[in-house]
Amino acid sequence: MRCDQRGFTLIEVLLAVLIGSLLLTAIYGVFGSVSSAKQQLEQEGEAYHQVRIFFDRIGGELSSLRLAPAGKQPTLTSAKTFEGESAVEFNTELGSPFLQQKGGLSRVRYELRREEQGATLYRSEQVLLADLAPSEALPFVEGLKGFQIRYFRQGTWQEKWTGNRLPELLEITLELEVAGRIIPFRSSFVLPEGRG
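Given the sequence above, the corresponding structure tokens read:
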């Protein structure tokens, strides 16, 4: 009895293995790209979330500016840290919920601190109507590559503010590095006139 069945030749088997390998490599590449894109989007989303929370918070605080008790300090001043980094201080009625129970007016300070992995924006607060020490400065926005505050009054932008009158606008620019890219964020805040 003669069998007419024919098996695969070595070339056919090698060709099938090659085609299968190419398909698996392509599929792996697609999954790798999708995973990398997903990770980058998550990192960018976290950066946008951090900055949005910061801009919301400082916007509310700046809209609640108030004169210090007995006029001891200007309502808003620019400052420098010991390392020469930017800082801004102001009096506001919108303080931390825990400290609001101690008094309704706080002196808030935002300052930049350089670290090994970039810079971090810190926030501290001192209740002005109670005898409490300033709160510990806590990190607010991490991973900064750039931080700038500008003040606008009577048609002129200034890098520093020391006047007793409030500027008309305060502009904050942040730069965050995400997945090797620097993403700039900028927002301007109209300050309440005649309140400070």
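The first strand starts at residue 76 and ends at 80. Try to locate this feature in the token string yourself.
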